[in-house]
Structure formats: structure tokens, C-alpha cells
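Bumping with the actual sequence this time:
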Amino acid sequence: MEERHGKIVLLDLHPIWLDSVREVLDEMGMSVAAATTVPQEALDAIARLAPRYFVLDPAVRDGESNWLRVIGEAVALDPQLTVIAFSESGDAETVRGAFAAGAAAFVVKTANKSDIGAALRLAQTTAIHVARSLPPASDNESLTRRELEILQLVAEGHSNAVIGRKLWLAEQTVKFHLSNVYRKIGVQNRTAAARWAELHGVSSLEATETRSPQNSVA
């Protein structure tokens, strides 16, 4: 691959939208290396050009093909790639699916034009969702207090062993709770769970540093 610069690959079903976003990014001094309506052409460009960013609409269905899968394929091609989901659909399923697949940020197309530039800059350090909020998990799949505590500590970057010590839990118990968290919020790993937590503003319900075995409930 070429040396990585601030290049961008765009993928969207609508050529007019591609032209519009290219103009916005050009105004911001950002370089669009390739823009296409065909997923395979975008993937080929990623393999050939080593862009820093890949911007696409994960909600598009092209025949039987769901473009959400393209995120995973792009990240598999280039693990250093930063994927920005930029979609008209800001529903919970689309947003969660994008983050679970490997997107670093989600921007709705109704946001201000400057938001896409901000997302590109911020996505190097954080997972964000611009101009739309999500509801929590459904009533039937809501996270328990303990699961929320563990998710918060995961988002803070703590290992299972450290979480266990903070909450007076066995490491295996932490793993059990995490598996339930992943299932409920629809993610596959710690990174996606941490992004989900940040996206939803998950915060500690109370200080965990001072918990003791007497007042801790698994």
C-alpha cells in the first residue's frame, strides 16, 4: 500500500450526493481519493490507495446485498482504516449495526455540513454519533445495574481482572456479565461495547472504588 495520508474513499448509492460531499470536503482541505456507487470499487480503492477514512451509508440495500457488510470487509482489508457511517437512517438498529461492524463514527445526513469534517477529525480518538440520540435497549433486554457498571468500566479501558477487583467479582463472573451485555446491545467485542457505551452516555451509577463484598451483588 502507499504511504497513508489524509485520503478519503466515498461510497454511496447516489452520484449527486457523492459530488456534494466531495465539494464539502474539498472546502475543508480534505482529499477525496475515490468516490463510487459500487462497493467492490470502493474496496479495491481501499486496497490500492491506503486511505485514512472510508465514508459510506451502511443502511443501503443493493438488491440482496446489505452495505453494512462492506464495513467489515474494508476493515479486514486495512485494520488501520477509520470508517465513518454517513446515513439518512439514524435508527437504533442501523447505528448499532454500524458500530458493531467496525465503524468509528456515525453521522446523519441531516446534520450540518461541517459535522462530516468534525467526524473525520474526531474519529481518530473517539466513537461519535452526530445529531441524533438513541433509545436504550428495549424493556425486555434492558441492562441490569451490574451490567451497566461493568460496561462503564469496559468503556474506561479496564481489563476483566481489574473490573473484578473493583466490583469484588470473580473474573469469570465478569466474563459472564459481559457476554450478556454483548447480546443485549448487539455487539461482538469490547471495542464495540465501549463505543456503544460512549454513544449512549453510559456513566457510573455510583462510585465503584469503595464497594465491598458485603454490599456487592453479582
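The C-alpha cells above came from a reply further down the thread. The radius of gyration is 19 Å.
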